[in-house]
Structure formats: C-alpha cells, structure tokens
Amino acid sequence: MRKMNFAQAINEGIKNEMRRDPNVFLMGEDVKFGVFGVTAGLIDEFGEERVRDTPITEEAIAGGAVGAAAAGSRPIAEIMFIDFITVAMDQIVNQAAKMRYMFGGKIKLPITFRTMAGAGISAAAQHSQSLEAWFTHVPGLKVVFPATPKDALGLIISSIRDDNPVLFIEHKLLYATEGEVPDENEPIPLGVADVKRPGKDVTIVATGFMVHKALQAAEELSKEGVEAEVVDPRTLFPLDKETIYNSIKKTHKVVLVTEEVKRGAWSGELAADIAEEVFDSLKAPVKRIGALNSPVPFSPPLEKYYVPNEVDIINAVKSIV
Amino acid sequence: MEIPKETLLTMYERMVRIRKFEEKASELFAKGKLPGFIHLYIGEEATGVGVCAALREDDLITSTHRGHGNVIAKGGEPKYMMAELYGKVTGYCKGKGGSMHIADAEKGILGANGIVGAGLPIATGAALSAKLRKSGQVVACFFGDGASNEGTFHESINMGSLWKLPIVYVCENNQYGEFTSQKRHQVITDISQRATAYGIPGVTVDGMDVLAVYEAAVEAVKRAREGNGPTLLECKTYRFHGHFEGDPQLYRDKSEVEEWMAKDPIPMFGKQLLGNGVATEEELKEIQNRIQQEIDDAVKFAEDSPYPEDNETVKDIYTDLVEEGRVR
After folding, report:
1. What separation in angstroms does the CA of A52 have from each of A31, A49, A299, B32, B203?
2. Is the residue at A187 inside a domain?
3. Mutate to test the interface with B, among A56, A73, A91, A102 (most CBs of B within 10 A)
4. What DSSP element (H or E) covers A254?
5. Coil, strand, or helix at residue A315?
6. What is the domain extent for residue B52?
7. Which of A76, A101, A141 is the mutation pick for testing B, counting most B CBs within 10 A?
8. Is residue B293 included in any domain, yes or no?
9. What's the CA gap between B119 and B25, in Å, rounded?
10. Over 80: is that where the pLDDT of B327 sits?
11. Burial class of A181 by CB neighbour count within 10 A (0 to 12, 13 to 18, 19+)
12. For B3-20, what is the mean pLDDT?
C-alpha cells in the first residue's frame, strides 16, 4: 500500500490513463497549475497539447469535450467549481447526455467532466454548492462522488475509461485528506458501493465528505452501544441499490446523509426507492439529513450551521433506534 | 478556378436532392404524415453544397435545427433521413432523434442540433480532436445569423482562433433568427465583421451562388488544413419557407420573399452549367428525374418501414446499461 492524499490520487489516476491511452487529454481553466493543485505537474510529462489551459469559457470547455469525444478523442474536461457548470448546462444536459440516444446509439461520448463541489471554506453561495441531483436526474450521464483517496484513484480511472459522459465530483474538503491506496493503479467499477464500516443496528448511507462525518458519528454511537453500518455508494448513478438494500434488510433502519440542499435532493430519490422497494424491511421511517434549504452562506458560523454535522447524524440515528 | 465537370454535376445533383427532399417533406407534413415539426432548407441549398463540396469525405460537419440540407450536402442519404422524419426504426437514428437530430458519424455528420448555437463548441472540440490526433481533418461548422448572438459563437471562435484549429465557421445568414429579422437582432449587416474581434479572416459571399460559396470555402478549408486556423465565412442566403412548416410568416412581406426567390440558387446554377457548356439540358433533366425517383423511393422506404419496438425507448442511452422499461 502507498499513502497519498485525495488530490494526489486523482492526479495519479489521470497520469495513469494519459500514459495508457494517447487519446486522453485534459482541458480546463488553469489546469497547468490546478487551483487546488490536483492537476499540477501533468504538463511536465504530457506537454501543453494534452494538458490544455483554456480561456474562462465553460460552455466551450464542455462543448469542446463533446465534440472532441464525438470525433474520437477521450477528453477530461475540468469545470473548476460545480457552481460554474450552470454556464455549461446546455452542453452537458442537452448535448453530452442526449447525443448517443438522439443519434440512435451510433456514437459514443467518452467524456469525464471533473468538477469541485461542497461547502466548508467560506467560498460563499457561488463556489460551494452540492448539485449532484441535477445530474442524476438526467438520463445519459453517470455521476461519481468518491470519498477517499483509494476510491478517487480507482474511480477516476474507471470514469476516464468509460465510454459515456461521467460527471466526477470532488469535494474540496477532501483534497488534503490522506489515505492508503493499492500499489497498483487499478480501476474500481462504477456502480459498486462500499461498506465503509460494518454494523448491525442502523444503516447510514452517506456520500462525499459526509462519509467522514457519518464515520465519526458511528464511532460516537458505538460508545453508546449502537453499531451503525456506513455505506458509501461512491457512484450516485449507476447506483448499487443491492448493497444498500442488503444493509437495510440486516439493520431495518436507515439514515441518508448528503450535503445537498435537502429539498429536491438525490437522497430524496433514494428514500423514495427504499420506500417503494424494501418498505417491508423497515422498522422505522427513513431519516434524511441534508443542508438547509438556503444558499450557502459566507460567514463561518452560518456556513457551519448550514451543513449537516455529526450531531445531526447522531440525533437522527437515536430517533429511530 | 477550374472545377472538374464531375464536381460541378455532383454539386448540382446535391442541390436538387435537397430541394426535392424538402419539397416532399413539406408536402408530407401538410398531409399530416410527419410527426413533430420541421424546419426546411429550401432556398439555402447553395451554402451547404458549396461548403461541403470543398471538404474531404472524412472531414466533419455540425449542423442546425434546419439541418436536412447540410446532411444531404455532406452525403446523407434521403431514404434514411426520410425514415427518421417518419420516426421509423430504419431511420438514421432509429427514429429516436427526428428531423432536428439527424447524424451519420460515418459520413462525418456530427449531427443537426435542436439548440441554437450549440453546434459551435461541438465543432470546435471536433477540430481540437482532429488537431490532437493529427488526422488532417477539417470541420465545417454551420450555424445561422441567430446563433451569432449566442455566447457559444463567441466562446467557440475565440477558442478556435486561439488554438488555430482546423475549422471553418460557416454562418448561413438567412436574414431571420426564427421570426426576427437580422436588422432587429443585431446592428451589423455583415456577420463576418465579427471575425476581426478574434483575429481571423471574415469573408462574406453571395450564398445564392454556389460557385462563390465553393471558392470561398476552398480557400477557408485550405487555410484550416494547413494549420493556419479558422475563417468566419458568411453566406448571405434566404429561406423561402417559414421558420417551421405552418409558420404564417406575419413578420415578412411577400414581396421580400419574391425578390429572393428570383435569385433561386438552383436554376441560377443550372443556367451557369448550360452557359459554360458543362452540361446539357438533357443531363440536368436526367438528374432531376433521377433524384425525384430517389425521393419517391425514400418515401416508400420510410412508409414501408416499421416503427421501433417499445423497448427501444430505454436503449442507446448508455453504451453499457439499459434503463428500466415500463412494467405493464
């Protein structure tokens, strides 16, 4: 095993794929240095043709990736903050997601859209959102949301190799987190969840940075004799419902934890699926924790109040066990 | 410019194919035989054909919601197009795309597009791919005067010029963005002027004259292929029909339409071919009759073809997974 942080893991995965496949290239705003250093150094090995700084031009970055993929390349397009993706929505939602379908399956679009999400650094309302539900709502896209360096490495490799448009979401608070990764750069398949902590009393499904808060909450709960099983879906679509349902069938109780604004969240869809498909396994209502229905505030105490924390999770668990 | 007879006759044939395809589509739509809505290219034949005649077989194009003409100009086949207009499984897109989304990757047609201006970044990305893969391909990006006010126009041409991509931005200025005339949607007359802002050549040609379009396109394609970057080529043209079939066209005078129809590019080109002794009346007539037959056969092919099966609805979304079908 090697140790690396989350940002280094993504860098390593991209490097691995760029070495392996000459059709892979990276473009985005300031990718030469990388705002959080994720793509730093790649230009030294691959040059500025394949590590391509773009103007500030999100729609042309996203659309450029669509056209390059349609013409035979395998682009990685970086939209610096997920908030900026609003500017590129037509190309992602109407073009990338639909072209294969509209053209009767006669084209493939191997694109990885990398983007950074999440609150926690007082970046305020236009640099901090969690917008994953917008994209899981659109047939034709896959949505990946890793929580550890190991998963980030394996999933970025799979995302790049995938022949479909993949939105790869990176929570900014994870970049500096360290973890062990396998010595070999191996892909982790999309659509396979990971049980991050086994338990028997309650299932906590958490995504992205919330996986770590769920794990902390689970440690606290354990002191009080409640063993929570923490399931990290890792990809939001395709979703490994089987692993989630198997856990629920064992614990009969579930808490869903995401950083999204709760209204219209991806977690709402999962709650509905659980109600439709494994209702009989439940012995308590599905609990759902999310951010407040508010823009992300700037002021540190307000931002802290806005995002879910360990206490919210612990309280939700206690209300049903 | 010396142009081989074969090229000239192919150009004439493709213009006739577009016209007859569109006239048939108009007739079928009026009879209620085609679902959805259609935007016809009648009157603009010289632009698509003039540009595509300057391209290689493996070159790429992107098109617009008024895309039938560009598709035929790049070699698209009427029978698969007609079947697509009918929503039949034998259509270019298995009936899943329809009029606004016809594509044929094998012929380098990266799709018509239902979103105004959306083809510009896609074409730019395709040109980037051609450059990175060193394929020698050039991309022709078709769009209208309306799209020249979209953000994508500016973002794409900036990127294309910055990176000297092998692309020709072809503005088919048909004088109207939907119902709004050019003078009511921008203050400039020549959209090619906007090239100055991106440091690339901007050229305006008579889009009713296929040879003028062709010659300008040859120059622009050569420049692109040699690695000298994009050209903004504006072709002044006119759509003889409304924005869509059934459009009452309250926004323009009949006299204006008649003025442009007097400049119909197909008889004009026919006259040139006869005048230069390139073709005889009989040869042109033969082309017209043959294409008419081809279009009639295309309609028969489309009408005889089956609709897709219901379960096709959830296929072709991803390469590797099928969404859930309806439980009935």
Report:
1. 7, 6, 35, 50, 30
2. no
3. A102
4. strand A254-261
5. helix
6. 5-314
7. A101
8. yes
9. 24
10. no
11. buried
12. 97
The domain that holds B210 is classified in CATH as 3.40.50.970
Q: Chain A residues contacting B, CB < 8 Å? A: 23, 25, 49-50, 54-55, 57, 59-60, 62-73, 75, 90-91, 94-95, 99-108, 139-140, 142, 162-164, 238
Q: For position A320, what pLDDT does the model report? A: 98
- What the block records as the tokens of B280 is 């005889």
Kindly report the pTM of this predicted structure. Answer: 0.97
Smallest Cβ–Cβ distance between B125 and the set A66, A106, A140 belongs to: A66
CATH number reported for the structural domain that contains residue A117 in this entry = 3.40.50.970
Band of pLDDT at residue B87, cut at 50, 70 and 90:
very high
CB nearest A104 (choices: B96, B115, B323): B96
Please state, in angstroms and rounded to a whole number, the distance separating the CA atoms of residues A53 and A55: 7
User: How buried is B157 (Cβ within 10 angstroms: 0-12 exposed, 13-18 middle, 19+ buried)?
Assistant: buried
In degrees, rounded to 5, the angle at the alpha carbon of residue B169 between the alpha carbons of residues B163 and B171 is: 155
Question: In this structure, are A269 and A174 located in the same domain?
Answer: no
Residue B1, pLDDT > 90, answer: no
φ and ψ at residue B283, rounded to 5 degrees: -60, -45
Are residues A169 and A203 both part of a single domain? no
In a domain, A188, yes or no: no
Measured CA to CA, the distance from residue A34 to residue A11 in angstroms comes to 10
* Chain B neighbors of A59, CB-CB under 8 A: 121, 151-152, 155
Nearest to A67 among B95, B125, B315 (CB): B125
Task: Show the tokens assigned to B70.
Answer: 């560009």
A-B CB pairs within 8 A amount to: 154
Work out how many domains chain A is built from and give that number. Answer: 2
Q: Which residue of B has its CA nearest to A66?
A: B122
Whole-number pLDDT of residue A267: 98
* From A127, A171, A212, A252, active-site residue: A127
Q: Enumerate the residues of chain A whose CB falls inside 8 A of the CB of residue B101.
A: 102-103
Amino acid (1-letter code) at residue B54: A
Share of chain A above pLDDT 70, in %: 100
Query: Residue A57 and residue B95: Cβ atoms within 8 Å?
Result: no
Tell me phi and psi for residue B209, to 5 degrees.
Answer: -110, 105
Percentage of chain B modeled with pLDDT above 90: 98
Predicted local distance difference test score (pLDDT) of residue A35: 85
For residue B113, give the chain A residue with the closest CA: A95
pLDDT score of B328 more than 90 = no
> What is the separation, in whole angstroms, between the first and last Cα of chain A?
37
Rounded mean pLDDT of B61-75?
98
Note whether residue B14 is domain-resident: yes
Question: DSSP assignment of A80-138, as one string?
Answer: EEGGGGGGGHIIIIIIITTHHHHTTT------EEEEEE--SSS--TTS----HHHHHTS
pLDDT the model gives residue A151: 98
Q: Which amino acid is it at A299? A: S
Give 10-residue mean pLDDT values along chain A (321 residues): 97 98 98 93 97 98 98 98 98 98 97 98 97 98 98 98 98 98 97 98 98 98 98 98 98 98 98 98 98 98 98 98 94
pLDDT number for residue A140: 98
Dihedral pair phi/psi, residue A259, rounded to 5°: -90, 0
Predicted local distance difference test score (pLDDT) of residue B21: 98
A269: domain range? 194-320
